Amino acid sequence: MSEWLTFVKAYALKNNIPYKQALTAASPSYKTRNEKVVEPEVIPINETTTKPKRKYNKKDKSTI
């Protein structure tokens, strides 16, 4: 059985309401039960991740 259905059945028993009514009434409680404040991850800038310089120049292909 899914976590949602188990939660709805427990919500219906706890609040003494029918299962059908609990399906809509339990939604706000279910959405906020695991809500966490997630801070954005800080990614350090690494100087070695820049593109390497070319060793040779591109040839002009218009004269070929």
Model description:
With 64 residues, this protein is mostly helical. Helices cover 41% and strands 0% of the residues. Helix 1 crosses helix 2. The protein starts with a helix and ends in a 32-residue tail after the last helix. The mean pLDDT is 77.
* Class by SSE composition: mainly alpha
- The 3D shape can be described as rod-shaped
What is the count of β-strands? Answer: 0
What proportion of the residues form beta strands (DSSP E)? under 5%
Helical stretch tally: 3
Mean pLDDT: 77
How is the biggest beta sheet arranged? Answer: none
Order of helices and strands: HHH
End-to-end Cα distance: 70 Å
The poorly predicted ranges are none
- What is the helix content? 40-55%
Gyration radius, to the nearest Å?
Answer: 29 Å
Short synopsis of the structure:
By secondary structure, the protein is mainly alpha-helical. The protein has three helices and no strands.
List the helices and strands and how they pair.
Layout: H1 3-15, H2 19-25, H3 27-32
Helix pairs in contact: 1-2
